[in-house]
Design brief:
Elements: E1 2-7, E2 26-33, E3 36-43, H1 49-58, E4 63-66, H2 71-79, E5 83-86, H3 92-99
Parallel strand pairs: 1-4, 4-5
Antiparallel strand pairs: 1-2, 2-3
Amino acid sequence: MKVAIPLKSADGLEADVLGSFERAPYFAVVEKSGDEVKVNLFENPSSSPSELAQVLLSYGVKGVLYSEAKPLVKSAFEQLGIEVLEGEFKTLKEAIYSLF
């Protein structure tokens, strides 16, 4: 499953994870295939949650990581078939280890 994670910067595995996508300048799309984990970093082009959902769907994302998703945000993602995963992590590396 491809999971998107909001990031403060594009500093690779040491990038700080943000609590939500609304103000995240970057996001990572992480995918595990067998024993291999692929990580791609992207600049966040969206200006609204609905636009973000469409961008993530275009990348094949099936899950998003939030520290605490607001009910409306969670509902909007779930209606589009994107699972909302919750957890708090300091770095992208920590988030990846917890997911896989």
